Amino acid sequence: MGKKVSRREFLKGAAVGIGVYGASALPLGALAAASQRKSRVVIVSSPKVFTDPETNPNTIEKLGLAAAGVWDTSIDQLVLNSMLQQGVEKLTGMRSDAAWRSLFKPSDVVGIKVNCLFGKGASTRPEVVASVIAGLKVAGVKEENIIVWDSKDGHLIKAGYLINRDRPGVRCYGTQDDYDEAPTSVGRFNGRLSKILTEKITALVNVPILKDHGTAGVTCAMKNHYGSHENPGSHHRNNCDPNIAELNSIPAIRDKTRLIVCEALKPVADGGPGANREGIWEYRSLLVGTDPVALDYQGWQIIEARRREMGVKSLAESGREPKWIATAASMGLGTNDPARMEIIRKVVTA
After folding, report:
1. Which domain holds residue 145?
2. 34 exposed, middle or buried (CB, 10 Å; 0-12, 13-18, 19+)?
3. Which range (31-40, 42-51, 92-101, 267-276) has the least confidence?
4. CATH of the domain at 317
5. Residue 237 domain-assigned?
6. pTM of the full predicted structure?
7. How far apart are CA 171 and CA 173, in angstroms?
8. Can you tell me the mean pLDDT for 62-89?
9. What is the dihedral of CA 101, 107, 108, 109, to 10 degrees?
């Protein structure tokens, strides 16, 4: 994409970009192995991201943005786009459009992995995905080479997505039964991976939603890949430790992941992973990074802080401490040491 993008165009349709210290399209595994610098996680928030859905002038449809669906019309899309733009600028120290181009090539086929199992209110919002799609377009990725995906068509539909396998525009569909013929085994993990992940895409954007989880303690970046293989139910023993870590060490996940954008607009602090109304609160934030361990660690701390405010037991006291985060760090997937993280907080007011 050779032409310059005006600020208005960038905020409207080319929302965001995430780079890694100016690195050029490096997968997470290479970044973790090559860099001794602190893992940077940007937590970007805005008090204005939610507005009156009846009078909201900045919905996906009114702005004419490419999207895979629409659900939460209370989101001011321009504010959300600005949150992601400023988050990437803090993450990379470079212009957001340049950051996207450093991560993705026009020839890439990019998968956007969402979390949609529990429907509206407990799933990745299509509005967040629309911002990611706009950023990919800045990098020159064609709409037809973007696949928004999860395990099943039905899960996506419940969360407000529209299935599109072969019509013009952004693709959106579930794996259904299209898994690798042979299982992949790493340690205790054994499962057939989605062919969307292993065969159809060259790059991956992980877009989870931050939630409490009744078994794993927290579901965020790494747990999101339980929707990337056929038998997640067989991998919940011992609070998913070490299975989550082992799954995320698989090259198809580790080497293809270019970006993680965690939705924390309205996370679930207790009673998850479903949309437990008593556990949902307005955090109005996005977590942006490239280190899945550091990002999950920060997500865990956000959940714990909210649980303290609610006066409920910590995850450790509940027998659900996410020990798989430490396991993932021990496997070299990232860091869970706060001293090796650089946490940048940004508040967007316009």
Report:
1. 23-347
2. exposed
3. 31-40
4. 3.40.50.11440
5. yes
6. 0.90
7. 7
8. 92
9. 140
